Amino acid sequence: MPRDMPRDRRDDSELIEAIGRARAGSESRIRELLQSSPRRAHTLLRASIRRGLLGDTDQVEENELVLSMMMSRNSIRSALAMLGNEGLIRRRQRIGTNVVGSIFELPLLSLLPTQGWQVASETLEHPSSIRMESKLVEQSVVIAHEHVRSRLGIDTDRVMMREDIVSIDGMPVGVIVGYYAIVEQLASGEISDTAEYLDQLRRRPTTQYEATVEAVNSDERTAKLLEIKEGAAILTRETLIRDADGTALMIAYGHYRGDRVALWAEDKRVIAMKPAEDSAAA
């Protein structure tokens, strides 16, 4: 092979020859097999980090990724650059590329006790357990927005609002705001310890969780709490919880770092999607 060939082309040619020898394919056929999609490469590598296939301190070899993923070298390099910008890997000359960050996979249909919370690996198929710490940011009685009143099914104009920041391994990953229709109970003295009551409320047997997830840009205050740049992508989850009697217990909004949190759910009952009716036939 000519040594005056540019390094990138020489690497690709050597790679193609290696794949060809391993798979007994022609050079043109191997080139056809190599996918060219930085987005797909980035998605698969992020998923590998999230599920623990690539862990902290693991070395990431460009040639191995091209071979194992059958992706073009440019796609792999673009994907690694994106992961580097997200703080998940670190690339250093003459040292190599290492995984340095984690993506935390949290249950979609769950709420946090005010004193902290733990996800057990045997419960959610995580490579390791996740321990989240919760810290109160603000708690007060506020005017209930029409949307909150409608979702909670109440006609009172005030609700209890509690905002907590949650962290994993010292890293702030989410801000959770909950609204509760307990103002009258607080005024009458029926509820004396709000934190304890809210923990009990969140642990009560429920029959229905409703969750809606959106991707939005962070505002200045949320960005400061989560230690990210203003305008960075965050996941916003609205969760409505009803008890066994169908009474709405609370509505909560979780705001999670888009670069560090993934929301996970599993349901054995698959809802089949029906094809749209043919309007012409109707």
From TrEMBL:
* Domain of life, source organism: Bacteria
Q: Name one GO molecular function term.
A: DNA-binding transcription factor activity
| Domain HTH gntR-type per the UniProt entry, residue ranges | 35-102
Keyword Mitochondrion among record annotations: no
Xref: InterPro entries? Bact_HTH_transcr_reg (IPR050679), Chorismate_lyase_/UTRA_dom_sf (IPR028978), Tscrpt_reg_HTH_GntR (IPR000524), UTRA (IPR011663), WH-like_DNA-bd_sf (IPR036388), WH_DNA-bd_sf (IPR036390)
Gene3D superfamilies, per this entry?
A: Chorismate lyase-like (3.40.1410.10), Winged helix-like DNA-binding domain superfamily/Winged helix DNA-binding domain (1.10.10.10)
Q: Where is the signal peptide?
A: none
> What are the alphabetically sorted keywords of the record?
DNA-binding, Transcription, Transcription regulation
Record's protein name: HTH gntR-type domain-containing protein
